[in-house]
Amino acid sequence: MNKKYLSALVCGFGAAVLTTIPGVQTIACCLLVPVASAISIFLYKKSQPELIKIQTGTGIFLGLLTAVFAALFASGFEIIITYITRTSDLVTSMPQAEKVVKDMNLGPAAEESMEILKQMVSEIQSKGFSFLYAFLITTTNLITYSIFGMLGGLIGTAVINKRNQSV
Amino acid sequence: MRLTEVINSTKLIFEQRAKISLMRLLFLFLLSILTIGFLLPTITSIDNSLSNFLLTRVYSSVCHQESAKCISIGGASMLVCARCSGIYAGAIVSGVFSLLTLVRPISTKLLILSAIPLVIDVFFTFTGVYKYSQSIAFASGLAFGGIIYLLIISELENLFSNKSFKGNE
Q: Which of A66, A133, B42, B164 could be stapled to A37 by a disulfide with Cβ–Cβ 3.0 to 4.6 Å?
């Protein structure tokens, strides 16, 4: 396997595992994926000793790749956990959302979206899986992780290149 | 002959400067979209449960969103915690300044220095030395966000100008 993909796969998997551990995100916050991307670049650099400096474009690509792997693994873990427990953050927040829609009388659009959410909740509670829910969490994870992964890749490349310059 | 050389190099400098300014403006615009996204519940009431769920989900993957740690305005909470808000705010401020001035290359030391207040605050609140404070968390993120933004900008400029930091791959 290409070393680029391997370091991204390892770090993406690591980041995804960490996101599922309660409390870790409280400390790491938005730094989890960028740090994973930076580590992936570091590992890539380590695996190729002849490499003196990493191109910024390569750094961004590695960051993106790490983020995509992290998003896919994190979504997969969440889908599995939802399947086993038959509950998710959507199910727990549903009564509150329903109350808000009822109290504020937000109109037909709000009720329609509420119906979609209700359908997802009932599918999760009965079968443990909702295709729409799985699709939505994977898409949102891919979008956010990709942005932060690329930024992490960019910063990681800068830090690693500067470190090599000073050595 | 010399005059044409001077004119050409001046043209080149202006073209490069225009490219850099445009890139900075574009990046600041993208950052503003990201910032408006988490501010949305405080700016306007989202009357659609599905969009509310999606927006919360987008930011939940990069922030824990603990309600006690999120800044509230008029009863509505932001979608990221006070520390993350500080990081974004610092980035926006340095983004605006970077449009007006030249950006010097950011050293790793400066990056580490800017992260120290943030790390200290996380460590102290986690170990219980003092209670979590939204204002301290916000302030600790400001410098880090600003420096990170400048580092990203200078790296992007390197990427587009393709002058330095060219790897040997």
A: A66
- The dihedrals phi and psi of B77, each to the nearest 5 degrees, come to -95, 150
Tell me the nearest-neighbour CA distance from A114 into chain B, angstroms. Answer: 6
CA angle (B57, B58, B61) in 5-degree steps: 80
Contact A138, B81 (CB under 8 A): no
Whether B47 sits inside 8 A of A106 (CB atoms) is: yes
DSSP B61: T
Give the separation between CA A81 and CA A87, rounded to whole angstroms.
8
Contacts of A151 (CB under 8 A, 6+ apart): A34, A37, A63, B148, B152
More confident residue, B165 or A87: A87
Q: What is the pTM of this model?
A: 0.83
Which residues of chain A does B137 touch, with a Cβ-Cβ cutoff of 8 Å?
A: none
Structure-block tokens of residue B79: 């979608």
